[in-house]
Amino acid sequence: MVDLGEFSLDRMVRAVEKVRERLLRAAALLKTHGVPYAVIGGNAVAAWVSRVDEAAVRNTQDVDILIRREDLERTKVALESAGFIYHHAASVDMFLDGVNGKPRDSIKVHFSGEIEANSISPCPDVIEAAPFEKLLLLSLDAVVHMELSTNAIEGKVNIKDLLEVGLVDSSWTTRLSPQLASRLQEILDNPDG
Questions:
Q1: For residue range 29-40, what is the model confidence (pLDDT) as tens digits?
Q2: Which end of the chain has the least Cβ crowding within 10 Å, N or C?
């Protein structure tokens, strides 16, 4: 049986703030150390969605960044300088947030030009990033390609969020490869599935 703590709105808010703080710390460290990167995944989708409707933003526990493989050592130096701990497990490169950090509280690293497990196309290059406040954010086109390429549940939810606010629509099927267009069409045809 799980040991339940008290209900607490403060704990809920703090959980979201911790992800934001981790993301901003990592971005600042990478910038200071001159490491090209892009924010991807749920945080990238949330940033894009927020430009249309902040009420439609979904919180995520993940911090995902895209770097070039040749910048991994520089990334280690940058993040470890602030207490992040490099960890590699189950073919995932990540930085735990301190000695007591858990994989759920980490920064997950993805590599430009590489095809990840269960993906059908390589990750985009970090040059497809643009400034977004204090971050470098992957372009909308590249975000959509990455989310559809993995075909993971989280990716489908992220695509649904982009559809809901009108950043993506059925016209995108003509802009995508046949495989990615097919995946988008499946989501359009069955938004609840």
A1: 999 999 999 999
A2: N
Q: What is the pTM of this model?
A: 0.94
Reported in sequence order, the residue ranges of 2-113 that DSSP labels E, i.e. its strands, are: 38-40, 63-67, 84-89, 92-97, 106-111
Q: What is the Cα–Cα distance from 189 to 192, expressed in whole angstroms?
A: 9
For the domain with range 13-139, which CATH number is right: 3.30.1490.20, 3.40.720.10, 3.30.1360.120, 3.30.460.40?
3.30.460.40
| Phi/psi of residue 67, nearest 5 degrees | -135, 175
β partners of residue 93: 88, 109
Our CA dihedral for 92, 137, 28, 106, rounded to 10 degrees, sits at -30
